[in-house]
Each structure stands twice: as C-alpha cells, then as structure tokens.
Design a protein that fits this description.
LytTR family transcriptional regulator DNA-binding domain-containing protein, 7 helices, single chain, five-stranded antiparallel beta sheet, DNA-binding, Rossmann fold, 2 domains, 31% strand, 242 residues, OB fold (Dihydrolipoamide Acetyltransferase, E2P), five-stranded parallel beta sheet, alpha/beta
C-alpha cells in the first residue's frame, strides 16, 4: 500500500518513516510539509493512505479536508494534540494517533487500514455487489430494525465510521463507511455529492448555483439542502445533460 506523509516538521516525518519500515507492505512514496503540497501529490500519486498532521502553517489538516474535493484516500491523523480526536472521526478519518508515535499504536492503525482494504476488495469483487433502487436492505440501529427498499432512501450522510440513512421519518446509523456504501449503490440513482453525502437523484426537488462553481440541491420529503462540490458538479451536469 502506498502512503504519503504530510507534516511540517521534518524530524516528525523522518520518525514516522522509520516506524513504517516495520511494515514492508507500506511504501512511503512522498512527503509534504503543508497541505498545498499535499493537494498536488494526491492528484498525481493517488496513495492508499495519508498520514496527516493537524497543526501546520497555512491551512490546518481539518481546514484542508473541509475544502478539498479531489481524490482522498484513507486518512490517519498524527498529532501532538488529543483534543481533536472526536472531530477527526467526524470527518471520517480512519484513525487518530498521538505523538510521540509508539510502534504498538501505529501497528493498530495499520491493522485498521488492512481490514478496510480487505473489506473494499471483498465488496468490489462480489458478483452481486451493486444494489438497485428496487432492492431491499436490512438496517439495524440499536434495538430497532427496518427492512427498507432503497428507492425510499433519499440521503446518506457520513458520520465518522458510520453512515446515517434518511428515509421516511427515520435516520438510523449503520456501521459502514460512505466509500464502502457508494460501491454498493447504483450510480444511476445514487450520486456522491461531496465527501459527506450521497443523494438519491430521484428526490431532487430544486437545484441552485452555489459558491465556487458548486451547486445546492433541495431534496423532496424533508427539504434537506445538500451542497454538490465544484468537482462533483461537473460530473453531475455531465450525468444529467442530454
């Protein structure tokens, strides 16, 4: 698996590279000292994992993730600050590792990464992995269960390692990443609007121009307003144009 390290401290990058030598299947293919450098590297190299510092000159790791709408691999935060852990999982990070990084703790992160990769391979190689609008899925959240047809699901929202499904008046959480869910859904019906949302195209009630060349759609039913990122707006227009 290919990795990129983003950290403004050269000694921190060197130490992480040294620790990663204990995992021969992880190859560090590039380094960046800030998020501007990271942006260009991601587009050209498309790694499997990004080791990302939070406090850096210019944009912080969080600010960059919130504004970035390009290719994004699994993200493992590496930071000296423990107060950002909850926010890290809200932006769908795979893990959050405190500095100074210990080998045992890094090993746990690599195991999570391996499990995620295995899950994605199993999903993508399954002969029946694409689910259409007429397919039914079983959903369990706590003590409540639903057997719901996918054409009733108007919105999927990433909540860290979970996805919240919006159908009827229900909003259950399922233990699945938004990326993994996207691979199971019919792209003719379900569209990835941004890093956090997948929308059911059949529920779009209104489309408006939005900031920085993006779009905002309003969904029928409960009237959720979802931003389509600038990059995805291009795909959206191509998909729905004659």
């Amino acid at each position: 698996m290919k990795a990129i390290i983003v950290d403004d401290e050269r000694l921190a990058r060197n130490e992480l590279k040294r620790l990663l030598e204990n995992f021969p299947h992880i190859e560090v293919i590039a380094e960046a000292s800030n998020t501007d450098e990271a942006s260009s590297l991601l587009e050209t190299l498309q790694p499997d994992v990004l080791f990302l510092d939070i406090q850096m000159p210019g944009k912080t790791g969080f600010e960059w993730l919130e504004s970035w709408d390009g290719f994004l691999p699994e993200v493992i935060f590496t930071t000296a600050f423990d107060e950002y852990a909850l926010k890290a999982f809200e932006v769908n990070a795979l893990d959050y590792v405190l500095k100074p990084i210990e080998l045992a703790r890094l090993s746990e992160s690599i195991q999570k990464l391996e499990k995620r990769q295995i899950q994605q391979v199993r999903t993508s190689t399954s002969p029946n992995h694409v689910l259409g609008a007429q397919d039914q899925i079983f959903v369990k959240d706590g003590e409540r269960c639903w057997f719901v047809r996918l054409d009733r699901v108007r919105l999927c929202e990433s909540m860290g390692n979970y996805v919240r499904l919006f159908f009827d008046d229900q909003k259950p959480l399922v233990l699945k990443s938004l990326n993994a869910l996207e691979e199971r859904l019919d792209p003719k019906v379900f569209f990835r609007a941004n890093r956090k949302h997948i929308i059911n195209l059949n529920y779009i009630d209104k489309i408006e121009p939005w900031f920085s060349g993006g779009l905002q759609v309003t969904l029928s039913g409960k009237g959720e307003k979802i931003e389509i990122s600038r990059r995805q707006s291009i795909r959206f227009k191509e998909l729905l144009s004659l």
